[in-house]
Each structure stands twice: as C-alpha cells, then as structure tokens.
Fold:
Amino acid sequence: MTSMLAITNATIIDGTGNDPIENGTLLIEGERISAVGSSNQVSIPGSATVIDAQGANVLPGLIDTHVHFLMEYPNVVNNLLTPPSLRLLLAVPRMRATLDAGITTVRDAGGTPAGVKMAVERGVVAGPRMQVSVSILSQTGGHGDGHYPCCVDLGLAGKFADVPRGVVDGVEEVRKVTREILRAGADWIKLATSGGVLSTADAPTSSQLTVDEIATAVYEAAAQEKRCMAHAQGTQGIKNAIKAGVASIEHGIYLDDEAIEMMLEKGVYLVPTLLAPMAVSKYSAQHPDIVPPMMAAKSNNVMESHVRSFERAVKAGVKIAMGTDSGVGKHGENSQELPLMVKYGMTPMQSIQASTLHAARLLHLDQQLGTLEVGKLADVILVDGDVLSDIKQIGDPANVKLVLKGGQAAKNLLSEQVPLLAGLR
Structure:
C-alpha cells in the first residue's frame, strides 16, 4: 500500500510566486504530491499520517546550482596532507549537512566524480539529488589549472581516475577532453572563461579560453544533450561565454550593460554565489597563515563589484538561479545565500523562487521539482518562522524542522510522541 502523508495548518509557499496559502494542506502519496490547497478544499484520507504544522512555512526543497562537495575552504596545506580516498569520504558528511539545511537538489560544479551522485541515487549515502560537471575545462595557467608555483599540480579536488584532467589549449584539445568528461558521466560541462579568486596565476578580470574553444565545448555537450556552465568573473570572459552559447554564468562579478543585455537576449542565467568571496574573506581573516595572500587579497577586492553586478542584474530582469559555491566556504550554510540576495535587491519571494522554480528551470528539472504542485516529486521542507517577513529564518538549518526528498523524511526534528509538530513555536 502506498503511504500517505498530510501536512496541515501550514503556510504554504509553493514556489510559483503566488501568495502563500494560509491554513493550507499538502497531501503526499508515495513520492509525489497528490493535493495542495486550503485545508477546507483538501480531503485527507483516514489512512494518512497527519502533521499539524501549526502555521509553520512549507516550501519546495531548495536547489543550489553551484556546490563543490570534494572541497571545503581554501586550505592548501590540508589539501597536501589529504589522500584522495579520504577526500572522497569527506564528501559524505558535507552532503548530509547540505540536505539537513533544506537543499534537496544540487549541481556540483567541479571536482566530484559521477560515482558520488550514483552513491546517493542508490541509497549508499544520504545526500541531495545531484547533477555533476566532474571536471573544469581550463586553459594552461587558467582558473582550473591546479599547478602551483612550487611546480606541484594539486588538481582541482584531488586526483581520481574518473575525473579527467581539464587543462586544455586549442579547439582539438577542448573537443577531446570534453568528450572524456562526458564519458566520465558529467551532466554539465564546466568551463573557466575568466580568472578567479582561488587560483594563483591569474586575475578575476582576465579572459580565458577563446570563443572558438568555448563554442567547441558547447557543441560537444549539445551533441549528447548536455549544456555548459561558465566560471566567468571578468567582463570579457562573461561575454565570450555568452557568445559561445553557455547556459549559465557563474559568479558574474564584473557585469556591464552589454553583458546584461546579452544575457537577457539569450536567456542566460546568472548564478551569483554571493556567499563565496565573503566566505573566503572571513576564513582568510581567521587563518592568515593558511590562505595564500594573493587569494585573500583578490577576495576582498571583488566583493563590492560582485554586489553591484548582482544588483544591476536583478534590476534588469536577468534570470537568476541560487548558487553558493559551497566548498569555497562551509557546506550546510547554503541557505544563507537567500538573505544576501534580499539584501542586495531581491524580494524575499524572488529569492525563494531563485532557489526553487528558477533553479529547477536552469537544471531542466522543473517538470518534476521546484514547486509544490500536484504530480511533482515531494521534495518539501518545513521551516519554523515566517520567511517572507524575515528571510534569515531560512538561512539557519536549525529552523528547518522537516526535509522530505521524494516523500521520504531525510531530516525529521518533529516530536516522536506526536508524529507531528508538537512543540514547534
């Protein structure tokens, strides 16, 4: 018999942008939503388990479109002392923390083998649904080149046989390595089209990879019905990526009017990752002996431009999907991106949509996820507090009392005595 769960007396924010449903009921049958609406409109079968939400917010599971599970903080010394096998196992608690924060779907933006995604799908380890890019395509000396001044190549996140080395120069190398990354199970091809903060041989403003090189990766990905995302911080690197046909610009620190117009014209998404430079700056201030000075300096230097570019993109109506670059900072703090998006120009409802429906659209998952609608997968979170009045409530994992992934409880802080929400205030 298919299990049934009813969440009643909830304030339902369904991800569509519509007004919340006060005193709402969400009915889940098996792994899918079977009804949603006002409590006086939804009939609850007698066999259903009932949760009284006592007015708490119920939302779609959040989607983070830019994480790195094989990384956490820019600690070069620690990386040198960590065997690849240990690095792989360290992803397990990071995925758990991400899920506990209410993030039920992620796109891993480089360094994580496809086998990690498969382990989650097979129930070997707990974690969010995943799309993976596996490697990062980078030119020699570019943002994804792990070669340090000491002449040691640390790689992106440790060296694994099923994570192809992504350093490429010229169209034919791009073609071959893109095919290797797709063979390794990538859902996305990630390109570094500009320099970055956490690289040693470039500046965030520098342009990397030619338009032809980027377009070759876009073509090869499309041949296998996949798409490309671009680490693009500098203005020309952003424009080159858009011209070549990428689906999303990651970071977008130095947007100008022309770049914004290009994004609007081609429907390219911005994944802003506002948390990332702030996390690096905070960590480098706490550990000045660990973070290479050039990385700390670059992080501090980009923050103002990063915020201003995000504000301009929001005002212009650029499509925005939530992404955090978790791995640069701490996993499990993903939802702190929403208060930052609100601080710099979005309404609370817009930040929620960027983290649900719009993120699902970017990942081509919106037929199954991103909103609380009949027939969709029951990825659902219950959050203590009124997130539309205080979006910071969603940024604290302690406020996320229930996480359902496909109708199954991935996190449950509800009372064992009252299957339900007794004690939630």
Summary: Residues 416-425 have pLDDT under 50 and may be disordered.
